[in-house]
Amino acid sequence: MGRGDLSPELAPEQIVRLEEDGPAVVLLDQRRLPDEVVEVRCASAAEVATAIRTMVVRGAPAIGVAAAYGLALAALRGEDLAEAERTLAASRPTAVNLSWALAAMHDDPAPERARALHREEVERCRQMAAYAAELFRPGSRALTHCNAGGLATAGYGSAVGALRAAWERGLLERVLVDETRPLLQGARLTAWELEQLAIPHAVIADSAAASLMAGGEVDLVVTGADRIAANGDTANKIGTYSLAVLAAHHRIPLYVVAPTSTVDLAIADGSGIPIEERDPAEVTGRFAAWNPAFDVTPAGLIAAIVTERGVHRPPYEL
Ligand code: MRU
Predict the structure, then answer these.
(1) Å from CA of 78 to ligand 1 middle
(2) Ligand 1 atom, smallest distance to 185 CA
């Protein structure tokens, strides 16, 4: 697949799909974007798990969709399904969409079921984007963190979906994109998606957010989520909590946009959310390093959580 084969609207099956002839789960390699548009073919559930762990595919809803296809692949190949499910479930800890998708596939791991889950997840994104757009005013200048776009959701996007919907309604002036150290999901993936969608944007160093907020350059912050606890505490890419503290200080609303597949009612509050620790070498290979990949933003710092069911404000009854 070449760069020119990708239209501005990344089709869901260009991000992740199951090919029954093979069979294989085929993933757009998000590690190599935006410089190279390359696919990775996974021929077993274990290979899908490795692709999730190494972030060929990343972003909570996209991880869930990939795992659903991974289980369907295991069924097509006659793999031990309990083992396949365990391997996939262990691939990354924080995004609850992973266990949610595997549970949805457990009784009937058929390809068509995985495709339906994928279609429904993209539809949820479109619905919540429409709700989230109502939070923008004409001329809104947004800031976003990490990548919560089509790549992260296997089609359309959550936070970036909200930006798209606001842009289409003429409510968005421009987007500041946190580069998102250390893996640069913002600088590589969100900027690339916004460029494809012709939405004005500027990548900023994560540490530039404070002074830009102080200078009146940000009207709202919009992010995705990896797991939302019952009380609204929200895990998302490391650095989201810092943004939330900054936004509160500057009286700027921070909105979380995520499908209900990201909500974990079994966890009362953020203290129960497992936080992934990744290889310190992602931060620096030269010195000792510490690499927590997510943080938890307390519900009190979130102005509203937007799902496909609408705009939810505290106290949450999701
Ligand atoms: O480590 P990643 O790239 O998988 O982290 C992704 C994020 O933190 C996203 O903001 C989150 O999954 C929401 S994606 C719609």
Answers:
(1) 31
(2) 3
> Where does the pLDDT of residue 3 fall: very low under 50, low under 70, confident under 90, or very high at 90 and above?
very low
Q: At what angle do helices 45-53 and 81-89 cross, to 10 degrees?
A: 0
Q: What's the rounded Cα separation, in Å, for the pair 206 and 230?
A: 29
Within the chain, strands assigned E span: 16-19, 24-28, 39-42, 140-144, 172-178, 201-204, 220-223, 227-229, 234-237, 254-257, 263-264, 294-297, 304-307, 310-312
* 55 has pLDDT over 60: yes
Q: What is the pLDDT of residue 242?
A: 98
Residue of 153, 183, 237, 295 best suited for mutating to test ligand 1, as the one with most atoms within 8 Å of CB: 237
> Is the full-model pTM beyond 0.85?
yes
Residue 154 has pLDDT above 90, yes or no: yes
Among the listed residues 226, 233, 264, 295, the single catalytic one is 226
Q: What residue ranges in 136-290 does DSSP mark as E strands?
A: 140-144, 172-178, 201-204, 220-223, 227-229, 234-237, 254-257, 263-264
| Residue 139 Rama label (left phi>0; alpha psi -120 to 50; beta) | left
Please name the residue whose Cα sits nearest to atom 10 of ligand 1: 224
Clarify whether 226 is annotated catalytic. Answer: yes
For residues 95 and 64, give the distance between their C-alpha atoms in angstroms, rounded to a whole number.
Answer: 8
Contacts of 282 (CB under 8 A, 6+ apart): 182, 183, 291
Please choose from 15, 147, 184, 282 the residue to mutate so as to test ligand 1's pocket, defined by most ligand atoms within 8 A of CB.
147
Exposed/middle/buried for 21, CB within 10 Å: 0-12, 13-18, 19+? exposed
